[in-house]
Amino acid sequence: MPERKPFVVLPDSARVYDTGLGETRILVASEQSGGAWWLGSFASNAGRKTSLHVHFSAEEQIYVLEGILSVWLDDRWKDLPAGALAVAPARVPHAVGNRTNQTVRFLVSGEPAGFERFFPD
Question: Which helix (H) or strand (E) holds 23?
Answer without folding.
Answer: strand 22-28
